[in-house]
Amino acid sequence: MNMARLQPITGKEQVPEKHHAIVDAIAQSRGAIQGPFTMFLHCPELAGRVAHLGAFVRFEGSLDMRARVLAAMTVAREYEAVYVWGAQTGGARRQGVPEETITAIRENHSRGISPEDAEIVEFTRQLLRKHRIDEASAASLRKRFGDQGFIELTGAIGYYSMLAMTVNACELEAAPNAEILQV
Question: pTM of this prediction?
Answer without folding.
Answer: 0.93
